[in-house]
Structures are given as structure tokens and as C-alpha cells.
Design a protein that fits this description.
Order of helices and strands: HEEEEEHEH
Number of domains: 1
Number of strands: 6
Structural class: alpha+beta
Strand order of the largest sheet: 1-2-3-4
Radius of gyration: 15 Å
Shape: globular
Distance between the termini: 25 Å
Strand content: 25-35%
Largest sheet: 4 strands, antiparallel
Length: 91
């Protein structure tokens, strides 16, 4: 999950390190699917069943107000921090 987090510019995600979010997904490698997801210490998904509520939508500052208007919480990223954008700019 480290590389996808870097691609989106999510500096607080992607590794189990002190001070970072402790979101974990347990994957069934044989089935190639998620078995369980733990977000903020709460089991939100287990064996095909969604157990949690709410969530955040990853967006830029330009979309944050719209996400809020839909009753959802935005997780605002700055694409300048995105390794995907940084790679594109080097080309």
C-alpha cells in the first residue's frame, strides 16, 4: 500500500509507522480479494460484509466543497505531493 499512497500524495498512509494512520487490509491471495479491512482500529469490512459506516472521499481542494455538500467527508490531497504527478512533470 506504500506505492499507491505515494501516487495519490497521501503522506500519512502506506506503512505501519508511529504517527501514521493504521488502516489495514487483509488479502486472500488465493482468491485475489480483500478479506478484511480495519480503519482507525475498527473492523469495517469482513468476509464480504461491510460493517462500518461513513468514510472519506479522496479529492483535491477543488472538489472538497462538493464532497461536503453530499454529506461526505473529504480527504484533501495536494497533487503537487503526488509521485504520479512528479513523474509526469519529469517527462
Amino acid at each position: 500500500s506504500y506505492q499507491p499512497a505515494r501516487l495519490l500524495g497521501l503522506a500519512n498512509k502506506g506503512s505501519l509507522t508511529a504517527g501514521r494512520d493504521a488502516d489495514i487490509t487483509i488479502v486472500d491471495r488465493l482468491q485475489r480479494s480483500a478479506f478484511a479491512t480495519i480503519i482507525g482500529g475498527q473492523v469495517c469490512y469482513m468476509d464480504g460484509k461491510v460493517l462500518g459506516r461513513g468514510g472519506r472521499i479522496i479529492t483535491t481542494a477543488a472538489g472538497a466543497d462538493y464532497v461536503r455538500s453530499q454529506g461526505l467527508e473529504p480527504l484533501v490531497v495536494d497533487l503537487a505531493d503526488s509521485s504520479l504527478l512528479q513523474k509526469a512533470q519529469k517527462r
